[in-house]
Amino acid sequence: MKDVFINDRDHFKWSKQKEYISHLDTIDENTKIKAIDALTFFEVEFGAQFLKTSSINHPIRQMISNKAPFQIKDLIEFAETLKILKKEKNNYNRLIQKLLSKDNAQTEGISLVNVARMFLKEELIVSFIDELKYKKTPDVKITNPNNEDVFFIEITKLNNSDYQKEISDNYNFFHNQFNNVQPLFSFFGKQFQVVDKKEYPGISKIIADAKKRVKENDQIIYYSDRRFNFMLAPPSYNYDFNEICERNNIRSIRFNGLPIEVDETSRINNKIVKANQIPEGENGLLFIEISPIYFLTTDIVTAAKRLEANITKYKNLLGIILFSEIVAPKEPILVNLGNNHFFSRKTIENLCRESLFIYNNNCDMKLSEETLVKIYKALL
Fold first, then answer.
1. pLDDT per residue as tens digits for the range 40-65
2. Which residues of the chain are modeled with pLDDT < 50?
3. Among candidates 3, 97, 12, 77, which has minimal Cα distance to 51?
4. C or N: which end of the chain has fewer Cβ atoms within 10 Å?
5. Which of 319, 316, 298, 297 is nearest to 308 (CA)?
6. What is the DSSP letter of 248?
7. Contacts of 15 (CB under 8 A, 6+ apart)
8. Which residues contact 141 (CB under 8 A, 6 or more apart)?
9. Backbone φ/ψ region at 161: left (φ over 0), alpha (ψ -120 to 50), beta
């Protein structure tokens, strides 16, 4: 691999980002062409100085910096979505303004694009609505061009408390160590107490040393201290590893983080009041971005029943979409939970988009069967 980034300033140059892509050996030539085209488009839309002036935590800058194959494919899809939106009369500039700001991008901008890419695939028209100071307005208007059906989407995010953020950060750290940092082996692990970020380098070394021993000695390694434990196994010991997991009722290829000792479903229920943003006499959806830990720690059947009971009082609400993203080696799935509720997981290699759709069976429906079918196809 050619050394493209000679100094730190090179990372701020679009030309260097494109050059780096051109030398990658982890993607094919067609993907390289599409990725470079996506970066060229971003440079025009966000400006020549975007990489220099935006925060390192800006989600689009992180998307560009991460050169994993799945992230490059997601970057291409993200750009393709924006290109389609730019061609329409849909208040596209409002979306770009939301994406330029780190805080707005994190709370709303990225979700706007995620919503758009869902419904554009079903050839529906997506428009962005200006916020009015003294009037409740939703974020997105969706139109079915075949019959002029219209519905609206309100977007919100379930923010974490400081304690939840700490638990979530811990989980993401351990998840990355075992699922993304090479070399990768069969594993299981569990966390026992909150870990300060200052401890991350030391823990990374513990895990790296254990992986080195697994590789060099071709043996199962177990580690435990007061903070966490884990076991790693080379491919030659997969049978023994799986036997250990079954005997101890342990789920393999999983790191169990600390439980979030908060009733997250109740917090989601409190967010449903945002459905009031949907115009009176119109149908709409409530899109709620949540932490991926929710789906890892929650009985979604029970959660669906609780959420279903709460949304029935909003007669114009079609339903709610709980949405999260996680990097993990999971398979796509679609689970019918009954009563028109579904859990879905779509993947771009290791990038998983998971959603739980809770349908409001008490909705005063204004939409045609054709539009409803398109909505379900978009979500599932």
1. 999 999 999 999 999 888 999 999 99
2. none
3. 12
4. N
5. 319
6. T
7. none
8. 126, 127, 128, 129, 150, 151, 152, 153
9. beta
